[in-house]
Amino acid sequence: AEFEQTDVAIIGAGPSGAAAANWLAQQGLQVKVLERSHFPRFSIGESLLPQCMEYLDFCGLLETATTGNFQRKNGAAFSWGEQYRDIDFSDKFSPGPATTWQVERSEFDHQLIRGAQASGVDVEFGSQVVGFEPDATEPVLQVQPENGDAYALKSRFVLDASGYGRVLARLCNLEKASRLESRCALFTHMRSVVDDENYDRKKILICIHPSIKGIWYWFIPFPENRFSVGVVGTPDQLALFGDDDTQRLQNTLLDEPRLAKYLKGATSLRDTSKLAGYSADVSALHGPGYALLGNAGEFLDPVFSSGVTIALKSAVLAAPLVHRQLQGETIDWPSEFEQPLRAGVNTFKAFVNAWYTNELPDIIFSDQDSVRIRQMISAVLAGYAWDSTNPLVSASERRLTKLAELCRA
Ligand code: FAD
Fold first, then answer.
1. Which of 8, 49, 190, 295 has the smallest number of Cβ neighbours within 10 A?
2. Is 311 close to ligand 1, i.e. is its CB under 6 Å away?
3. Mean pLDDT to the nearest integer, 283-301
4. Cα Rg of the chain (Å, integer)
5. In b/e form, how buried is each residue of 262-276, taking b as 16+ CB within 10 angstroms?
6. Which long-range contacts link 392-399 to residues 24+ away (Cβ below 8 Å)?
7. What DSSP string describes 269-323?
8. Is 244 exposed, middle or buried (0-12, 13-18, 19+ CB in 10 A)?
9. Average of pLDDT values for 185-210?
C-alpha cells in the first residue's frame, strides 16, 4: 500500500494540537496536523488562566497570541445572591504571570494554528481521522479528506489533540467514565451594555443560582460589548426551566439578579448551544507510538476555566518527550508524562468537587480572611495547579474540607 509520511502526525488543530505542532516544528521535525473542520470555527472554552501564558511562551506562540483583539483578564469574581467576592490573580502564592485573556476561540485558535503554519507545520483542514493502527515506531492513521479519497498517513509518533472528538480514546478502547457527575451546559454569545459602574470587566464572573444547589453561570466579557453567557446544571435541573434550550437559558438567567440586570435589553449573537456529558476520562494517556493531549484525554468541568490551560500543559509535557523519543531515547511515558500531567489535573478535580459539595463557595464567601489562604486559592484559580509548594496543591481534598469546616464554624 501507498503511504503518506511525516515525522509527527497530530489529530486536531485546537490549542493543544497547535502548541505541540509549533514546538516540534521549531525543533526541525516534519509535522502534519489533520483537522476535520475549517477555521475559524466556534469552540467553547473562552476564559484562559495566567499559567497558560507560560505554556504559550514555551511553545513559541505567545507573541502571535498577543496580537489578537482579546479582553485582558486579571482575576475571577464570584457572586451568590447579595454576596460578592473577587480574587485578584496578582495576589497569589505561586510566582508567574498574573494576567491573561478571555478569548473568542474562533479567533484565538485560528491565530495559534496560523502561527504553527508559519513555523512550517503542514495543516490539512477538512480532513478527518477515521482509523488508527498503533505501533511503537510506525503508527498509521487513516485519513478521510472531505473531497477526495481516504489515505494512510504513516508517522513516527501520533498526538491526539482531537478534543471532544476523542479519536484515539474511541479507536483504542481507552474510554473511561469520569468520576464527576454528568452535567450539562447551555450557552450563547450576547451583546449588552452593562449599566453598572462597579462591573469589573477584567474578571470572569461566576454566579451561583440563588436557591438551586449546583446551578451556576459564567459571564465572560469580550471586546465591543460582546459576552459569553452560560449556565451549568444537571439535565434534570435545567429541564424545569422551559421547553427548549433557548428558553431554559433565558429563564435561568432571569433568576440571577446580577446577570438579569447586566443582560437587560441584550441581543443574542448566536443560537443557544448545548453540551452534555462533557466530563470524560481515559484508562491511559499514552500507548505504542501515541499520546493523548488536552480534552482528548481527560476533561473535568468548566467551573474554573482550566481546560485550555490543561490542554497546553499536556502539549508542553509531551512535545519534548516526542522529540527525545524520535532521537532514539527511551521515554517512560507513565512517569514522565501521565503522572506529572495528572498531578495538576487532580488538584483541579479536588477544587471542582469542593465547588459542588459547596465547600469552596463557603470558603470563598466566608469572612474568615487569612491572606495566606486567599493567596493559595488565588494561585490554583490562576492555573498554578502544578506548583507542589502550594499546600492547597498537594493534599487539596483534605485541606479544602478542613478549611471549609473552619470557615463554617
Ligand atoms: P479542542 O480545542 O476541542 O480542539 C480539537 C480539534 O480537533 C477541533 O478543532 C476538532 O474539529 C478536531 N477534531 C475532532 N475530531 C477530529 C477528527 N476525527 N479528525 C480530525 N480533527 C478532529 N476551558 C477553558 O480553558 N476556559 C473556559 O472558560 C472553558 N469553558 C468551558 C465551558 C464548557 C461548557 C465546556 C464543556 C468546556 C469549557 N472549557 C473551558 C474547556 C475547553 O473547551 C477545552 O478544554 C479546550 O478546548 C481543549 O482544547 P483541545 O486542544 O484539547 O481541543
1. 190
2. yes
3. 97
4. 21
5. bbeebeeeeebebee
6. 392/93, 392/347, 393/344, 393/347, 396/346, 396/347, 396/350, 396/351, 396/354, 397/350, 397/353, 397/354
7. SS--EEEES--EEES-SEETTEEE-GGGT-B--GGG--HHHHHHHHHHHHHHHHH
8. exposed
9. 97
162 lines ligand 1 (CB under 6 A): yes
What is the distance in A from the centroid of ligand 1 to the CA of 394?
27
pLDDT digits (tens, 9 = 90+) for 368-404: 778 999 999 999 999 999 999 999 998 999 999 999 9
pLDDT score of 1 more than 70: no
| d(C-alpha 157, C-alpha 44), whole Å | 28
Per-residue pLDDT for 207 more than 90?
A: yes
Q: Which bin fits 218, alpha (ψ -120 to 50), beta or left (φ > 0)?
A: beta
pLDDT at 235 over 70: yes
Cα–Cα distance for residue pair 210/256, rounded to 1 Å: 7
For 326-345, the pLDDT digits (tens) are 999 999 999 999 999 999 99
Give the Cβ contact number of residue 63 at 10 Å: 10
Q: Which atom of ligand 1 approaches the CA of 220 most closely?
A: 28
- Residue 75 parent element (H or E): strand 75-80
pTM equals 0.98
Cβ of 199 closer than 6 Å to ligand 1, yes or no, is no
The predicted-structure confidence for 41-50, as pLDDT tens digits, reads as follows: 999 999 999 9
Query: Over the stretch 43-83, which tens digit does the pLDDT of each residue have?
Result: 999 999 999 999 999 999 999 999 999 999 999 999 999 99
Question: What H or E segment, with its residue span, contains residue 327?
Answer: none
C-alpha span between 150 and 144 (Å, rounded): 4
Determine the Cα–Cα distance for residues 305 and 22; give it in Å rounded to an integer.
23
Tell me which DSSP letter residue 334 carries.
I
34 touches 11 (CB < 8 A): yes
317: left (phi over 0), alpha (psi -120 to 50) or beta: alpha
Looking at every residue in the chain, the average pLDDT score rounds to 97
Query: Which amino acid would we find at residue 24?
Result: L
Instruction: Indicate if ligand 1 lies below 6 Å from the C-beta of 233.
Output: no
Report whether 386 contacts 393 (CB < 8 A): yes
Ligand 1 atom index nearest CA of 52? 25
> Could you tell me the distance, in angstroms and rounded to a whole number, from the CA of residue 134 to the centre of ligand 1?
23
Give the phi and the psi of residue 16 in degrees, each rounded to 5: -70, -40
